[in-house]
Amino acid sequence: MNSVSLREQLISALGGGVGILATAALALWLFPAVDPALPWLIASMGSSAVLLFAVPHGPLSQPWPLLGGHLVSALIGVACARWLGTDLWSAATAAGLSIGAMHALRCLHPPGGATALTAVIGGPSITSLGFGFVLMPVAVNALTLLLLAVVWNAPWHWRRYPANWPARWRRDQDSGAPAAEPAAPMPLEHRHLAAALRAMDSFIDVSEPDLQRIFALATEEARHTRAATPPIRVGQAYSNGSFGQDWEIREVLALEQDADGSDTQVRFRRLAGQGRRCEGECSLETFRDWAVHAVERDENSWRPIDRTEPED
């Protein structure tokens, strides 16, 4: 789904152009000192530039897929060229083996397939390098492009590269507003997905039907695997079973009935997660929907308590 802003498109386009230009310039500066006939840039780096600068958060764009994908594919391509020849069958074998190897090593990177093909059908200037092709130009090109992607994506606070680096931007932190109570699940519509993607302002390499299916399957799995609501007791701590910035631990301070006895309010204190040490209040029904586990402190962590007895 592509709903990114013009600003994001320009950043991606300029980044890709600068990345290829700098990679080529460095290679041209390095390679003539070794051998002027060496190929200084391989075509598959153009595909890598698309991933690193246009889809920097994608799993196929990360450093290990980039480096591992190109290097293992280059090794396989050179081996096929040396021992099977440079015909169509050798090229097909190199492409297939490189895909299998990237899967096995968890470094799937589509341009790696092109690197394997280049090693087989790139012509005498490539095949004459033998396994040296893996180092120059493949490793040099890939490392240069990786460093440039890290530098280029760093100034834009909504971009993270590598993706596992901590995000420097959180909407709820920027607004300063307290975290809202979780709402009941609602069916996703096209407008909801479109609004979420506009807010992320980054190219997401997944279709809208796939997003809806992932959400539906995850919701169904949660419905089947979630344990019964734990008994809500004063003094007990509970977790919402979430992860990341949505994870919370709350301790029940009091259960207070309304004057007419029609409803019970839960007063709680947040022990961990968003709004730590802050107190809050909600209905008993809302708290039951939120609480997934009763938990207890275990040295430096929290662990679920397996309690199945009924509430008092």
TrEMBL record:
The membrane spanning regions, by residue number, are 12-31, 37-55, 129-152
Q: Keywords in UniProt for this one?
A: Membrane, Transmembrane, Transmembrane helix
What name goes with this protein?
Answer: CBS-domain-containing membrane protein
Top-down, what is the taxonomic lineage of the species of origin?
Bacteria, Pseudomonadati, Pseudomonadota, Gammaproteobacteria, Chromatiales
Under InterPro entries, the record lists: HPP (IPR007065), TM_HPP (IPR058581)
Pfam families, per the entry = TM_HPP (PF04982)
Domain called HPP transmembrane region: residue spans: 3-162
The source organism is Thiorhodovibrio frisius
